[in-house]
Amino acid sequence: MAESLWPWLRLPFYLSTAFVSLGGGALYYFQNEIIYPRNLPPGARKEVPQPGQFGIEDAEVLSIPTPDGETLSGFLVRPPNKSQARPITILSFHGNAGNVGHRLPIAKVLAHDLQCTTLMLEYRGYGLSTGNPSEKGLRIDAQTGLDYIRNRDDLKSSNVVIYGQSLGGAVAIDLVTQNKGKGDIKGLILENTFLSITKMIPKAIPIAKYLTPLCHEYWRSEDVISEITDIPILFLSGLQDEIVPPSHMKELFKLCRSPTVVWKELPNGDHNNSVAEPGYFSHIEDFVQRHILKR
Questions:
Q1: Catalytic residue (one of 92, 158, 166, 274)
Q2: Which side of the chain, N or C, has fewer Cβ within a 10 Å radius?
Q3: 241 belongs to the catalytic site
Q4: Does the pTM of the predicted model rise above 0.70?
């Protein structure tokens, strides 16, 4: 299944290279546009691929209100065979460009091959969601997605796994730390995420490295990941990542205090195509089987 979807799986992630194309004085005045390029590719705010385009039969189109008055779009994708479905709901957070529709092939593999229900939540200001993105706003969105699972009768008893790619990894780490000790989050999956926005700037926008004190979007994963001490964590690291240095993932791994931390390398994976590398979904399958279902 994953092999047939590789062209689609690769497509959205090249967009995060938009982060490196702007810099200098724009960092302060337009940093939200740089960090959250929600209009890329052109049309991404209006043209959202739908489940049927990828042969996904059991999916809901969602519209979820936030406590501060925004409305988040999203998809809930279920395994096609209910008798084989695992009692797992994956809450997925994508990278900094495109929309949830571009990530539907990932949800299809998670649902069809791994038999996991997947909630793909759209950030505010992305796709068909209302509002404008910011660190504060995305934190509210993430909590809204988790609360949606907690309050929905057919999902609230499932094992929740938080899954984040790139920027979504920072969102995921923050969400888990804000909900530690509550018992329903059973695992965390991180792919090619960073230590913090300020640590990313010298790599992504070298000419702006002296302006990092002006940055007002932080996502300080390095400061909070050690607070996660009660759930297993899977790191999926593309060793050819040209956007987020692989050293960021390795340092986050070293900072972990969870009793179970799994490190998996994708030797040929760069920032854009790690999800399509051989073994990517097998690593997730093994993590779910060994560390979520057998806990």
A1: 166
A2: C
A3: yes
A4: yes
